[in-house]
Specification:
Layout (H helix, E strand, L loop, with lengths): L22 E2 L3 E10 L2 E8 L5 E7 L6 H20 L8 E6 L5 E6 L4 E2 H8 L4 H20 L2 E2 L8 E5 L5 E5 L6 E2 L25 H5 L6 H17 L9 H10 L14 H10 L11 H8 L11 H5 L42
Antiparallel strand pairs: 1-2, 2-3, 3-4, 4-6, 5-6, 7-9, 8-11, 9-10
Length: 356
């Protein structure tokens, strides 16, 4: 069901990129471009000795002044360091980092097959209730481990949740992009003097009120807010707050109350709505204080045998709609999800940090 990214010949539009057949770091033979963004490119490649397929994320630093170049490279390295610390099945694996002859840094990651959640939501609308809980619980596994390691993600959003499959066909949620993560441990800080005062850190649709005010002073509860925003969108089919401008969305996050979920989807239970709304309390002290608390609240409502969320990703588009009151039929024959190689590049239209 997913769309394969258009084929791009290496070297056609980005100066200095490795070409197809070139070997990076003496062991990764480049195959094709699978994703492009404003700050770089993602290649598919194969380890020449192991025969392992990998993704190689290359940061483009051409044309940046020294300050911005240093900031971009530091953020890129931090992404690799943060993800490499985590062992959860729900974090994308980082295998290697290095620098090309052009001085562009690169990162070798596992090659994912599937779609990011933003693509699925855009294509199919809101998710079934059990699948929504399944996705959030899986994301909580990764985020909870990050918090235990003193890492706040700060940019959780649907395009940073990638839905792929386990070997048995069940869904597997991978949390991506720790590039703007913050360490809460001063002696082991990944933060450094990175974020200039002019920079908005994160994607505004999913930022907490305190992150809107000062991204440097957030703690783990900002990620709990973002998980609540993702949960809301899974249940409703659209974000909790809407505005046409960056100041408008920031003002709504800081001051407005999210529209009641049950007004837009009656099948959502009061208990489930209360969980999401507790994540979205303006005052961090009133939210769930840990990811474990959130998991404990969701678990009694989740089915004992969680369905394979791949059913959501593979159902016909016209059967999953985001209209208020719509009910998704239960007995729908599922289609096989195409194994499209894809690296998510979507982001909020108001995002000021470019993801690749």
């Amino acid at each position: 069901m997913g769309e394969r990214l258009p084929s791009v010949r290496l070297g056609d539009s980005t100066e200095g990129l490795p070409r197809k057949g070139e070997v990076i770091a003496g062991k990764y033979r480049v195959d094709s471009v699978v994703g492009k963004g404003g700050m770089g490119v993602v290649l598919s490649a194969r380890h020449v000795h192991l025969g392992q397929d990998v993704a190689i994320k290359i940061l483009s630093v051409e044309g940046l002044d020294d300050e911005r170049r240093h900031e971009a490279c530091t953020r890129f390295l931090r992404e690799g360091q943060a993800a490499a610390r985590l062992t959860s099945d729900h974090v994308v694996r980082i295998y290697d980092v290095g620098t090309l002859e052009s001085d562009a840094p690169f990162m070798v990651m596992e090659l994912l097959r599937g779609d990011d959640l933003a693509t699925l939501l855009g294509r199919q609308g809101r998710a079934p209730l059990d699948v929504s809980m399944d996705y959030v619980l899986q994301a909580c596994d990764a985020v909870g481990e990050a918090h235990e390691n003193g890492i706040v993600h700060r940019d959780l959003k649907p395009s940073n949740l990638f839905i792929c499959r386990r070997s048995d066909g069940r869904s597997l949620v991978k949390v991506l992009d720790f590039g703007i993560s913050k360490s809460l441990r001063g002696a082991d800080s990944l933060e450094g003097n990175l974020t200039a005062t002019r920079t908005v850190v994160g994607s505004p649709f999913y930022m907490s009120p305190e992150q809107v005010r000062d991204a440097k002073r957030v703690d783990t509860r900002a990620d709990i807010w973002a998980l609540g925003m993702i949960f809301y969108e899974l249940l409703v089919g659209s974000p909790a707050f809407h505005a046409d401008t960056l100041p408008g969305i920031c003002a709504a996050i800081a001051a407005d109350t999210p529209p009641p979920i049950r007004d837009r989807r009656a099948e959502v239970t009061p208990e489930l709505e209360a969980i999401v709304m507790k994540c979205l309390e303006k005052d961090p002290a009133k939210r769930f204080q840990t990811v474990s608390d959130l998991v404990l609240a969701i678990s009694p409502l989740a089915p004992k045998s969680a369905p394979s969320s791949i059913e959501y990703a593979s159902r016909p588009v016209d059967l999953l709609v985001s209209l208020p009151g719509a009910v998704v039929p239960k007995d729908i024959p599922t289609l096989q999800l195409a194994e499209d190689v894809k690296i998510p590049t979507l982001q909020s239209p108001f995002a000021t940090d470019v993801d690749i």
